[in-house]
Amino acid sequence: MKISIITVVFNGAKTLRSCIDSVLAQDYGNVEYIIVDGNSTDGTIEIIKSYGDKIDKFVSERDKGIYDAMNKGIQLATGDVVGILNADDFYSSVNVISSVVATMTESNADAAYGDLQYVDAADHNVIKRNWKSGAYKPNAFTNGWMPPHPTFFLRRSLYEQHGNFRLDMGSAADYELMLRMVHKIGIKLVYVPLILVKMRAGGVSNSSVANRISANKNDRKAWKVNGLKPQFYTLWLKPLRKVLQFM
Which phi-psi region, left, alpha or beta, contains residue 139 (left: φ > 0; alpha: ψ -120 to 50)? Predict the structure, then answer.
């Protein structure tokens, strides 16, 4: 099974090396690594080029935002399965991809996901938030559940059949894609009970009350554009679930 890993970045020189190194250190051999840069000006491009042919595909050009860049990466991918690791994130161990492949192969799943930890930007040993996903249950999205997108691995054929990220969804584009694939279409999803990704704390959608309100509106739109109707409590449970991750 060939795995394509996509990293999108814009002016990420401060964190990109740890992201790249975590991908290149994986003990699984059949990995295609793609980096899509948004025409950075802070030395990011020079960092990427310093890895030479260890990066399989690299493009640098202006884009319409992070999800447009992800879509570009998906179009470049040739792997059976696609994973997306942002420039601020890094894999927690060298056997993340091999664990995902083994679990997907054994279960013949369409997609896999695992757990995620938010860590202090300066000290990665300090855990700020622990996102333990748990096994997927039917209609879990209705109860405010979603898997952490950086841990989400999806067969490339499903992107081809059902579409990529919608650029009209704002910060909820990853939520909409997973809602569409898992809840609406009903792909076979498998849980890898391991911490797969560590993310530096400080996401855009949660950085202020105004951003959280905007994110909630986009979450509601995600259901609407798919012809789905959430329960009255669905989109309130979603942010409340995050509170438990701090405990």
Answer: left
Q: Kindly report, residue by residue over 154-186, the tens digit of the pLDDT.
A: 999 999 999 999 999 999 999 999 999 999 999
pLDDT in tens, 38-50: 999 999 999 999 9
pLDDT on residue 202 = 66
Nearest to 195 by CA among 105, 119, 111, 132: 132
Contact predicate 235/220, CB 8 Å:
yes
Cα–Cα distance measured from residue 156 to residue 48, given in angstroms and rounded to the nearest whole number: 25
DSSP one-letter string for 83-98: EE--TTEEESSTTHHH
DSSP 64-81: SSHHHHHHHHHHH--SSE
How many residues are listed for the chain in this entry? 247
Residue 17 identity (one-letter amino acid):
R
71: left (phi over 0), alpha (psi -120 to 50) or beta: alpha
Give the helix/strand (H/E) hosting 208.
none
- Sequence-distant (6+) residues with CB within 8 A of 221 are 169, 172, 176
The answer to whether the beta carbons of residues 235 and 219 sit under 8 Å apart is: yes
Distance CA 2, CA 153 (A): 12
Using a cut of 0.90, tell me whether the model's pTM lies above it: yes
Rounded CA-CA distance 210/21 in Å is 35
